[in-house]
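As a representative case, the lines below give one protein's residues and fold tokens.
***
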Amino acid sequence: MNIQELKDFLTRSDYSDETKSVLSSILADKTEVTPGLIFQIKDVLQKEIDADFDELGADVSNDPEYKKAEEEYIEDLNKIENDLNEDMNFVEKELKQLDENRNKISKVADEMEADKIKQSIQEK
């Protein structure tokens, strides 16, 4: 789906004019559909859905099943964040090691070049 198809889809949707206006302002300067943009759109749409449920008196925030699902969701998000942090630490460590190796190699290459120059001078 390209940005124009997304704009057309949201324009034709049954969401409120207020929601469509918010979405229109979000999409105004966008040229492509990105994961971040989709997240923004989902957030706006979820707010309208939640407001509709509130208006109907369908508050599930105290429901044990809802609370359990929300806790599992938060645990999953925390696990994902922890995994990401571990991966980032690993990558950072590897990059540091690569940089150290690059510096060592560069130093050896410089010494070899210096030795080569010294040897050519001595031969003359």
In short: The chain has one domain: 3-91. The radius of gyration is 29 Å.
